Amino acid sequence: MKNENIARENIKKILLQELNKTIYFFVAINEENKVIACNGVVIHQMVPSDSFLNGKKAYITSVYTDEEYRCKGIQNKLMKMVLDFLREVEISKIELDASNPNAIRLYEKFGFKKDNTKYILINL
């Protein structure tokens, strides 16, 4: 519980600093103004290279659809909005992680390909 409270405080702090600067959320709401689906995007400025010319990279995160609203095309619309936005801000590379077969089909529909080259170091 202690770590959860610390995480919540850190989330609040980061969102207050970075929302609509480097972190963006795309949401769908129902008739009662309840959020029923969302996609988060974090934009990073990396060091450019010859295959990554402007160095701008995005990570799609926090993809969620309320169970009642799944398989109704909502994530399809949100993903299109996200990708249109990322094109506008000239993102060169977009990454995401997925294990849900329905989500994977959606991402592949938009051209995402699986890449097994990531290595992660946590708690250095």
Detailed description of the structure:
- With 124 residues, the chain is α+β, with helices and mostly antiparallel strands.
- The protein has one domain (20-109): Gcn5-related N-acetyltransferase (GNAT) (Aminopeptidase), CATH 3.40.630.30.
- It contains 3 helices and 4 strands; from the N terminus they run αβββαβα.
- A hairpin with a 5-residue loop joins strand 1 and strand 2 (35-45).
What's a concise summary of this model?
This protein is α+β, with helices and mostly antiparallel strands and 124 residues long.
Using the 3D structure, state the CATH architecture.
3-Layer(aba) Sandwich
Secondary-structure-based class equals alpha+beta
Q: Could you report the average pLDDT, rounded to the nearest whole number?
A: 92
CATH topology: Aminopeptidase
Radius of gyration: 16 Å
Helix content: 25-40%
Helical segment count: 3
Major sheet attributes: 4 strands, mixed
- Tally of structural domains: 1
Low-confidence stretches: none
Distance between the termini: 23 Å
Order of helices and strands: HEEEHEH
Strand content: 25-35%
What's the CATH H-level superfamily name? Gcn5-related N-acetyltransferase (GNAT)
* Name of the CATH first level: Alpha Beta
Helix-strand layout with pairing:
Blueprint: H1 2-18, E1 23-29, E2 35-45, E3 56-65, H2 74-88, E4 93-96, H3 101-109
Parallel strand pairs: 3-4
Antiparallel strand pairs: 1-2, 2-3
